[in-house]
Amino acid sequence: MNKKWLNISLWALYGILLVLLLSFVNAKEKQVPLQKIEVEIAKDENRFINTKDIEQLILKNDSLGKPIISFKLNELEKIIANHPDIEKAQIYKSINGVLNVEIVQRRPIVRVFSADESYYIDENGKLMPVSKRFTARVPVVSLTQKEPYGIWYKYNFASQIPDSLAHKTLLDDAFKIARFVRQDKFLNAQIEQLFVNKELDWVLIPKVGNHTIVLGSAEDLEAKFKKLKLFYKKAMKNIGWDKYRTINLKYKNQVVCTKKQ
Question: For 32-105, which CATH class?
Answer without folding.
Answer: alpha beta
